[in-house]
Design a protein that fits this description.
Layout lengths: L1 H7 L13 H12 L9 E5 L8 H9 L2 E5 L5 H4 L1 H32 L15 H11 L1
Parallel strand pairs: 1-2
Helix pairs in contact: 2-3
Length: 140
């Protein structure tokens, strides 16, 4: 991840379990609001109902930084954040295409190895982080 962050000049929040959790939520808030104080003008962060966004620790940290956490119902973030349409929609569409292509390619490879008939159970694995990182760099 460090190499990818340096090479793309981006900040990546991730962990080895490939899931978002309270630790990542705190790191994200510290990255955004770490230099703020309780006397700064208030700012608002729009967050969905994802449980790691709404723990007591998260709410307390945001309050210390004079940051208001505002709940946005699922599916409505785009109404409040035009960036969701401008940036995230094309990113999600490109990523969806990437994922579809990856699954198609991996399925074809697996079928080619097990023809004429599969002799064992098999399953698809997700792409490695480096593969995903290169894809995200290519579409950025």
């Amino acid at each position: 991840m460090d190499k990818l962050q340096r090479g793309t000049k981006t900040k990546i929040f991730a962990n080895g379990k490939v899931s978002w959790n309270i630790v990542l939520s705190i790191q994200f808030l510290k990255y955004l609001f770490g230099t703020r104080s309780a006397t700064d003008d208030p700012v608002m962060l729009l967050w969905d109902n994802f449980s790691p966004h709404w723990t007591a620790e998260i709410v307390a940290y945001a309050a210390q930084k004079n940051s208001v956490l505002q709940h946005v119902p699922p599916g409505y973030t785009h109404c409040c954040q035009p960036a969701d349409i401008v940036w995230n929609k094309p990113l999600k569409e490109a990523t969806s295409g990437f994922w579809s292509d990856y699954l198609t390619d991996e399925s074809a490879k697996m079928l080619a190895r097990t023809r004429p008939r599969p002799t064992t159970n098999w399953y698809l694995m997700g792409p490695p982080f480096t593969y995903v990182g290169r894809h995200l760099t290519d579409i950025a």
